[in-house]
Amino acid sequence: MTKELFQMALNVTDPWFINDLKFDAESKRLDIYIDFKKGSTFSFFDEKEGKEFVGLKAYDTHNKTWKHLNFFEHECYLHARVPRVKLEGGRVKRITTPWEGISNGFTLLFEAFLLQLCQAMPVNKVATITKTSDDKLWSMLEKYTDQTREYEDFKEIISIGLDETSRAKGHEYITLFVDLLERRTIFISGGKDNTTVQRFAEDFESHNGNVREIENVSCDMSPAFIKGVKEYLPKAQITFDKFHILKIINEAVDKVRKQEVSTNKLLTGTRYIWLKNYNNLTVKQKETLVSLTMPNMNLKTMRAYNIRQAFQEIYQASSLEEFTTYLRKWYYWATHSRLEPIIKAAKTIKRHWDGIVRWYESKINNGILEGLNSVIQAAKSKARGYRTFKNYKIIVYLLTGKLDFSLVNHRFKEV
What we know:
Helix content: 40-55%
Order of helices and strands: HEEEEEEEHHHEEEHEHEHHHHHHHHHH
Number of strands: 12
Radius of gyration: 29 Å
Distance between the termini: 26 Å
Strand content: 15-25%
Number of helices: 16
Structural class: alpha/beta
């Protein structure tokens, strides 16, 4: 009866059956031995020929072992003598058993469990908990990521966002390409130059996408990104991400503060008051801001701050005409402010005018990318960084790609 129960639990079906069970309470280990019925026939799919051979009898057998999900606190292993079959031309191949995963030595269900764990905690932690090799886990994750991405279909994607992030402080950069509608990473490239867009375009086309169907791209004002989009996404219109624009203005405000703090010590320690939105200020910061707004203070930093606030309000416009009018008035104010950093920021905005105005029609930004990047940075912090670009890329896909691993492992959704 025990064998039958395990056979049902493991989904071992004809012609396979459980032949023996060995339970060692002292070593906390369960070994399950699986065999096949005498005279059974098998099938083999030849990937090179794209052809399936059926009705094949065992030519010989090889003993194989797979690590499975723990049986309570006991490690569990499956053992089987696996047939090899002879194909046309005399080639001898080992068949694939119904329970084995894509990694050598893991069952499908165990791999599904590992995938779930690796989405929730650092890989080295998963390796310790499950008593598996760290390198073997990375190899498994790479196979699942690559094979699942082969099923990706980008036919319906028309709006993308792109942004760079670093693998580690001062280290190599990667560029993320995100489907803004589905809020997921669809491609990752090393570097942050215009060739990253070329690599994206090639990958996009290889997954049933058409680069000429991409209508909108959200990015920062990087000349490399602009050049890449114009060259490889010919029909796309660029929307410059308002968070990056605000970053440019924030930097200008901070430069004004730094210049003024040497003559007005009241500005010491007030940096974040000028860079944060009012609603995000602490009570104490709000009180400090009020004290600095007194008319007799006549602070240059306050004038720069008001220009910053006014720029944000432009995005509340109720029509394209209103948006453009507000932006023109803001530009005139900023360029006549007699604050050199603010004037410089305004002229940068002028050079990218069309991409800024485009926001009112596309209504896209890289806020989604910022959110995904925060997930990535949190995982990087927990893992204390990643040794290689390849591992970093795997984790980004794992956490932000929304890959459907059940396409490769039908047991994934059972865990």
